[in-house]
Design a protein that fits this description.
Elements: E1 2-8, E2 13-19, E3 29-32, E4 36-42, H1 46-57, H2 62-70, E5 79-85, E6 90-94, E7 103-107, E8 110-114, H3 121-132, H4 137-150, E9 160-166, E10 178-184, H5 190-205, E11 214-216, H6 217-230, H7 244-256, E12 268-270, H8 271-283
Antiparallel strand pairs: 1-2, 1-8, 2-9, 3-4, 4-5, 5-6, 7-8, 9-10, 11-12
Helix pairs in contact: 1-2, 3-4, 6-7, 6-8
Length: 284
């Protein structure tokens, strides 16, 4: 009993979902890089998600993959499925016995779907938000989830949310396809909490900073030294000169905070990392 969106931009594939159901991210999203994304919901049968991905991996288009999968399910009229393959083919299925309001919207490279919703405006708002939001796929998915919630969402209330986006080699240090994978399993405001965690994920793991948002190390050396000293990483009196000891202290701090993914190899610091350091030192 859920609202979700599955989508691709031709490179990334992903699912965003929210529900008055504990840990919805454990059951609804099924995603494979360079293959596609599937949401299995209502009286969810997660086996269908795995089967649909397997079929799409073989080159079967999203619609045929869903139709072949649900044909094997004797309770298919209780199922709701959204699927998109990596080529952008999208298809939605809403069984006739899914509790009202239940329905879906299929657009270019996405399906917005839900059941036990406040009304059709939920999936319509999700579709509009996805189509109009600027940015990467993850930004569009989160915007769609927010829009669905604002339009009424799951009419029983709120409990959990999740977003999964895969990109070939796009994850941590290029060693995984997991670009974003966040779950909020039980929270009074799950979509807002999901967005809060995503901001931390973005700062820590995503390399998509504005290339203009940088500061020169030589220009902020004293301020950084003072911040690192307050945090216990720089032991000397600040000199205002970015030397080897300052670089080591900065890298030690970044590693401690899990920001190794954001260390540059030049004479600059990402503005987002610099601001986080200064703010953290003021809280210490």
């Amino acid at each position: 009993m859920t609202f979700s969106i599955v989508a691709t931009d031709g490179v990334d594939v992903g699912v965003a979902v929210s529900s008055k159901f504990v840990a919805v991210g454990a059951f609804v999203p099924h995603v494979e890089a360079s293959v596609g994304a599937v949401a299995t919901q209502c009286y969810a049968n997660p086996r269908l998600g795995k089967l649909i991905l397997a079929l799409m991996r073989q080159g079967v288009h999203a619609r045929e993959a869903v139709e072949r999968a649900v044909a094997q399910d004797s309770e298919r009229e209780l199922r709701q499925i959204g699927a998109v393959d990596a080529r952008g083919n999208a298809y939605g299925f809403t069984g006739r016995q899914c509790p009202e309001y239940a329905g879906h919207v299929v657009g270019s490279g996405y399906v917005a779907l839900g059941n036990i919703l406040a009304g059709p405006q939920v999936v319509e708002a999700m579709a509009k938000a996805f189509e109009t939001q600027r940015g990467e796929l993850v930004d569009k998915l989160i915007a769609a989830l927010e829009a669905g919630e604002r339009a009424g969402g799951d009419r029983r209330g709120k409990q959990s949310a999740a977003v999964v986006v895969l990109r070939p080699g796009g994850g941590y240090l290029g060693l995984t396809d997991v670009y974003v994978d966040i779950r909020v399993d039980d929270h009074p405001e799950p979509v807002a909490e999901l967005k809060r965690i995503f901001k931390i994920w973005e700062l820590t793991l995503l390399q998509r900073d504005d290339p203009r948002d940088v500061v020169l190390k030589k220009d902020v050396a004293r301020e950084v030294q003072e911040a690192l000293r307050r945090l216990g990483f720089y032991k000397k009196e600040p000199t205002g000169v970015w030397d080897e000891e300052t670089e080591k202290a900065f890298r030690d701090w970044a590693g401690y905070e899990n920001f190794e993914n954001k260390i540059r190899g030049d004479d600059k610091i990402w503005g987002s990392l610099y601001r986080y350091l200064i703010e953290a030192s003021r809280r210490s």
